[in-house]
Write a structure and sequence with these properties.
It is a single chain. It contains nine helices and 17 strands. The chain is of the alpha/beta class. The chain folds into two domains: 64 residues, OB fold (Dihydrolipoamide Acetyltransferase, E2P) (Beta Barrel); 228 residues.
Length: 329
């Protein structure tokens, strides 16, 4: 186990977003997180981690800026922060956490709906199903990309007013709020007056092809925390009719494993018109008429497939959001 790091110079900056830069280092695509590594400018002398690109990972076709030798040395920690993200690694950094300001868990969730996703690509249709007028918080758990700033989906949802705030849990970085655990994050969301939470992992799920060896099991962690705290956990079903992998056809093994690990009573939202999975799996059928119109102009893509290629994937996620809207207290 070793880092794959090379030295280079910033040759182009192609996009600027809060917390994220897309750039080129010696002509190769790269992303940078300036809140972590400091500001970046053309011709900066930098170190980049090349491993994801070299391995040909599906969502990792770019390098990641590791350190800026020109203007990123000697940076100080966040004022007042004591809890460390990525502790005892070369990227450990202190970040202020909500729990440091007081225990948010006293009041519980009081029935608040919590939609639990196994993929980041479910988040946009889920939020479209919840719709405007519901104060919704996005909660990101480890299991995919850790920096929230990487997600173009979250930026689009903010512009549409479909999410109001974001919470980075555990090793995740760059949310509006940081929390140590999923339970604390959900308690903070309810205590801050939000009406619903959407929990997911970041883009680029960790996967091994095994039943439990994937980042989607984070959905079970969120569901268990929601149930224990008096919330209403709803699982967004991952379904497909076109995925070339048999384990993801119909109801994906990611959803099945999340259900298997959920100790709380979890509702599995299911789009009306699609044949239910059967067996011992119970579903809550939801009318998803109009889902395409409600999702219009949102980034809809999963494994390179869009709504015309795999419509039930997006309709199923939309169903979870619509079911959550019906449960808003």
């Amino acid at each position: 186990m070793a880092l794959s790091v090379r030295r280079g110079r910033v040759t182009a900056i192609t996009e600027r977003h809060p917390g994220l830069l897309r750039l080129e280092v010696d002509g190769r695509p790269c992303v940078a997180y300036p809140r972590l590594t400091g500001p970046v400018a053309l011709d900066d002398d930098v170190l980049v981690n090349t491993q994801a690109r070299e391995l040909g990972l599906g969502s990792g076709g770019f390098d990641v800026l590791h350190a800026n030798l020109t203007r990123g040395l000697g940076l100080g920690p966040e004022p007042g922060a004591h809890v460390v993200k990525l502790p005892y690694t070369p990227l450990q950094t202190a970040v202020a956490h909500a729990e440091e300001a007081g225990d948010p868990a006293v009041q519980g969730l009081r029935g608040m709906p919590v939609v639990c996703c196994t993929l980041h690509s479910q988040v946009a249709p889920v939020c479209a199903g919840l719709g405007p007028g519901v104060r919704t918080a996005y909660v990101q758990l480890p299991g995919g990309a850790l920096p929230l700033a990487l997600s173009d989906t979250l930026r689009a949802l903010r512009r549409r007013g479909l999410i109001e705030t974001s919470v980075a849990v555990g090793a995740c970085l760059d949310g509006d709020v940081a929390c140590v655990s999923a339970a604390s994050a959900l308690a903070w969301v309810a205590g801050a007056g939000f009406q619903a939470a959407v929990c997911a992992i970041g883009p680029g799920i960790v996967g091994t092809g095994s039943f439990f060896g994937h980042g989607g099991v984070a959905a079970a962690e969120a569901a268990n925390a929601a149930g224990a705290l008096g919330g209403t956990p709803i699982l967004a079903a991952r379904v497909s009719q076109t995925d070339f992998r048999e384990r993801h056809r119909g109801l994906s093994h990611h959803s099945r494993s999340a259900l298997a690990l959920s100790l709380a009573a979890v509702m599995l939202a299911w789009p009306r018109g699609l044949e239910p999975p059967g067996g011992e799996i119970e579903v809550e059928e939801v009318d998803v008429d109009g889902w395409r119109e409600r999702c219009a102009a949102l980034p809809l893509e999963t494994m390179g497939r869009g709504p015309d290629d795999d419509p039930w994937f997006f309709a199923a996620a939309f169903a979870a959001g619509r079911l959550a809207r019906e449960r808003v207290v």
